[in-house]
Amino acid sequence: MNQIDAEIIAIGSELLVGGRSDSNSLFLADELGKIGIAVRFKSVVGDERQDIVTAIHTAVKRAHVIIMTGGLGPTVDDCTREAVAYATGHRLGRRKDALAGMTTRLAQWGRTPSTAQLRQALIPSGATVLKNPVGSAPGFCLTWKKTLIVSLPGVPREMEEMMRQEVLPVLRAASESSGRPQRAPIVRQVFHTFGLPEADIDAKLKGLIPSRAPVDLGLLASPMGVLVSLTTKANQFAPEKNRDLLQKLADDVRSRLGDWLFAEGRETMEEIVGRELIKRRLMLAVAESCTGGLIGHRLTQVAGSSAYVDRGAVCYSNRAKTEMLGVSAELIAQKGAVSMEVAAAMARGIRERANVSVGLSVTGIAGPGGGTETKPVGLVYVGLDDGTDQPIAREFRFHGDRNVIKQRSSQAALDLLRRWLLSKAVK
Amino acid sequence: MNQIDAEIIAIGSELLVGGRSDSNSLFLADELGKIGIAVRFKSVVGDERQDIVTAIHTAVKRAHVIIMTGGLGPTVDDCTREAVAYATGHRLGRRKDALAGMTTRLAQWGRTPSTAQLRQALIPSGATVLKNPVGSAPGFCLTWKKTLIVSLPGVPREMEEMMRQEVLPVLRAASESSGRPQRAPIVRQVFHTFGLPEADIDAKLKGLIPSRAPVDLGLLASPMGVLVSLTTKANQFAPEKNRDLLQKLADDVRSRLGDWLFAEGRETMEEIVGRELIKRRLMLAVAESCTGGLIGHRLTQVAGSSAYVDRGAVCYSNRAKTEMLGVSAELIAQKGAVSMEVAAAMARGIRERANVSVGLSVTGIAGPGGGTETKPVGLVYVGLDDGTDQPIAREFRFHGDRNVIKQRSSQAALDLLRRWLLSKAVK
User: Could you give the CA distance from residue A69 to residue A80 in angstroms, rounded to a whole number?
Assistant: First the structure.
C-alpha cells in the first residue's frame, strides 16, 4: 500500500460540549501535509475511556498514523493512557524515562511531582516515551496492527513542540526507510475573491482541472467573499510535476478570476489595501456609519498601518455626520442618511477634514430594525473621494444578519478602495 | 437503552486541511444538550464520497442521531447527498418539494436555479425534505437502522435556522413519544469575568463543587477574560434536583466572583453596557487610538445601539487627536500620545464635541513596533469622562500579539464604562 493516511483524535469533553473547538488539528494537518501524509478523518471524543477506545479501534481500521491530543493531564478525567493501553492490549506501568523527564521539568519551576502528576508517568508497555520540552506531561507512541498511534498533550504549545521535535522526525525517518519513493507534500494554494456569488465563480472555473489531474478545486463562500483553493492530492510521487501543474493551474485561476481576485494565501484585504496605499504614498481617512468602526478596526489590524491610516469617523447619528464631516443637514433630509449622495458627501467630508489623499465611506442599514420598503435592511452605499470632481459611490443590497451585513459592507468598501488604488499609477 | 447519543459529522475538505475549524458543531452540541441528547462523537471528513460513507457507517453503530453538516452545495465536490444515498442503499431523485423551496427562495433574490443548483434538489428516496428558510440548499433526514440521519448545509446561518425550525421539533417529539423517562437536559451555565487571571478565578472557586455532585466546573481563559462554566453531567433523570443544585452553585459562583463577573450566558460586554446606558438614558461617544475602531464596531454589533452610541473618533495620528478631540499638541509632546493624561483628554474631548453624557477613550501601543523601554508594547490607557471634574483613567500592561492587545484594550475600556455605569443611579 502506497498511501499513508492519518486520523487525528482530539480528546476532551470541553471539545464536545464546552463551546470550544479543536484547533490543534489545524496545525497537525498542516505539518502532516508538508511531509505528504493526508489527514482523512478527524474525530473528537470526550473524556470517557470507552469512547476513546472506540475511536482508536475505528481509526486503526482506516488510518496508518493516528495522532491523539489531550487527556494526558494529572486529573482523573484524563484517561487517554488507560484507553490506549486497554484498546491495544498493553499494560500501563510507570516508566523511569517518563518520570525523569517530568521531574526535571518540574524542578526547573521549583516543584516536585504531586501524587496526581505521578499518573502522568504511566505509559503502555512497549510504547516509546515522547519528551515534553514545554510542560510536564510526557507523550508516547506505539505501533499496533501496523498503525502508529501517537499520544500528545492537548495544550497547543506542548503539542506543537512535541510534534516538531519528537514525532515528525520519526514519521520522516519511517517514510525514508520504507524504500518507497518519497511522497510529494500536499500543497494547497488559496485565492480570495470578492463581489461575485459562488455560482458565478464556479462558472468561471468550469473545466479548469483536467480530468484525472491530481488536484482538487475547492470553493467556499463567506461574507468576505468566495475562497477558491487548489489542493494537490495526497500520495503523489513526483513533486516537480505536481508543482509545475499547480503553477499552471494557479495562473489559469488568476486569469479567469481577473480583478475579482483580491488576495492569495494568507493575505487579507486590509493588507492588500495597505500595501497599495504605501506604494502610492497615500494617506487614508474613513467615515463609517453602519459598519460602526469595523473598517478602521480591520485597517489597523495590520502592523504599520499608522503609516497610511490617518483617522476614522464613526458617525452613527445624523448630527455626527454633519458635525464631524460637514454633510449638510438638508442633503440628509432630502436624500436620506442612507443614499448615494450622502455616501459621496461623507467620503468628501472626511478627506477634506483630515486633509488626506483619499476618503472612504459607508452608510447603510445593518438591521434588524430601520428598514423600509424603499430602503430595506441590507441596503448599503460605499463612497470614495480623491479630491477630483468625480467621487465614486456604489450601491449594494446585502442579505444576512446585522453582523454579516457589517462584514460585507466593510469588505465592499475596502474592495472599492482596492480597485481605485489599482487604477492609479504607482509614484 | 435509555440514553440518546448523537454524533456530528462535519463535511468539507477545507475543515480537514484548509486551516478552518468546524464551529457548527458547537451550536449543535448546545442545542442537542438542551433536550437531553448528548453528543459523544464528532467527526470531520473531506469531500470524498467514500470517506463520508465510512463516517456514516461508523456513526450508525454508535449513535442514535447523526447530524451531518456541509456538502450540500451546487458544485461537484458537494457529495453528501450521494454519500447518504449510497451508504443507506437509497436512490437519489429530484424531489418536487425540494425544488419548489429552492425556486421560491431564489426568486426572492431575482434569480432562477442554475443547472448546477438543480443538483441541490436531489434527495435520497424515503427521506424527508428539510426546508431552508435562509439559503437555497434544502436538507433532508431519514431513519436507517434505527438511527436518524440528518443532513444540513454547512453555512452556519442556514444550518442554525434549519436546526431550530425543522430538526429540533422532530427530535423533541420523538423523545416525548418514546415512553422512556424524560432525560434531564444537559444544562450549561456560563459566567464571563474580566480583570483577573485564571489562577485567581480558580482560587476564588476552590471547593465550590461538592464531591460526587453531577456538575462539572470549567475555566477557560481568553483575551476577553476568563469564562467559568457549570455543566450538569449527561443522562441524569432528575431534572428538578439538577436544576436546584445548579441554581445553588450558580448563586455561589456569583457571590464569589462579585463584580469581576460582567455577564452570563450568551450576553456580551457590549450588550451589558448598552443595556445599562439605556436604563440611565445616557448617550456615549468613543475616542479610539490603538483599538482603531474596534470599540465602535463592538458597540454597534448590538441591534438598537444607535439609541445610545452617538459617534466615535478613530484618532490614529496625533494630528487627528488634536483636530478631532482638541487634545493639545503640547500635552501630547509633553506626556506622549500614550499616557494617562492624553487618555483623559481624549475622553473629555469626544464627550464635549459630541455633547453627550459620557466619553470613553483608549490610547496604547498595540505593537509589534512602536514600543520603547519606558513605554513597551502592551501599555494601554483607558479613560472616561462624565463632565465632572474627575475624569477616570487606568493603566494596563497587556501581553500578546497586536490583535490580542486590541481585543483586551477594547474589553478593558468597556469594562471601565460598565463599572462606572453600575456606580450611577438609574434615572
Answer: 9
Rounded Cα gap, residues A368 and A381, in angstroms: 17
3-state DSSP call for residue A7? Answer: strand
What range does the domain containing B56 cover?
5-176
What pLDDT digit, counting tens, does each position of B82-103 carry? 999 999 999 999 999 999 988 9
Provide the pLDDT confidence category of residue B308 given band limits of 50, 70 and 90. very high
CA A214 to chain centre: 24
DSSP B364-423: E--SSSS--SSS-TTEEEEEEE-SSS--EEEEEE--S-HHHHHHHHHHHHHHHHHHHHHH
Same domain, A165 and A219: no
B73: which chain A residues are within 8 Å (Cβ-Cβ)? 198, 219
Q: Which of B321, B310, B312, B313 is nearest to B357 (CA)?
A: B310
The answer for residues whose C-beta is within 8 angstroms of residue B281's C-beta and 6 or more apart is: B427
Of the residues A143, A158, A177, which one is the last residue of a structural domain? A177
User: Is there a contact between B299 and A292 if contact means CB atoms under 8 Å apart?
Assistant: yes
Do B59 and B154 belong together in one domain?
Answer: yes
- What is the distance in angstroms between the Cα of A96 and the nearest Cα belonging to chain B? 31
Q: How far is A176 from chain B (nearest CA, A)?
A: 23
Q: Is the peptide bond before B210 cis (omega within 30 degrees of 0)?
A: no
Same domain, B15 and B71: yes
- List the 371-400 stretch of A: residues with Cβ below 8 A of B: 399-400
Question: In chain B, pLDDT over 70 holds for what percent of residues?
Answer: 96
* A223 contacts in chain B (CB < 8 Å): none
Q: Which residue among A21, A229, A312 places its CB closest to the CB of B293?
A: A312
Q: Closest CB to A231: pick one of B17, B43, B117.
A: B17
In-domain check, residue A235: yes
For chain B, how big is the Rg over CA atoms in Å? Answer: 26
Choose among A18, A26, A42: nearest Cβ to B218. Answer: A18
For residue A163, the 8-state DSSP code is: I
Contact of B152 with chain A, judged by CB distance below 8 Å, is answered with no
List of E strands, A12-112: 38-45, 65-69, 92-94
User: Is the Cβ of A305 closer than 8 Å to some Cβ of chain B?
Assistant: yes
Contact B54 A33 (CB under 8 A): no
Residue B34 has pLDDT above 60, yes or no: yes
Same domain as A203, residue A121:
no
- Same domain, yes or no, for B163 and B247? no
Domains: count for chain B? 3
CATH assignment at residue A222: 3.30.70.2860
Contact by Cβ (8 Å): A37, A270: no
A182 located within any domain: no
The Cα–Cα gap between B308 and B281 comes to: 8
- Going through A104-238 in order, the beta strands assigned E by DSSP cover 122-124, 128-130, 139-144, 147-152, 188-193, 215-222, 225-232
Is A301 close to B114, i.e. CB distance below 8 A? no
**What ipTM does the predicted assembly reach?**
0.84
Distance from CA of B96 to the nearest CA of A (A): 22
pLDDT at B366: 94
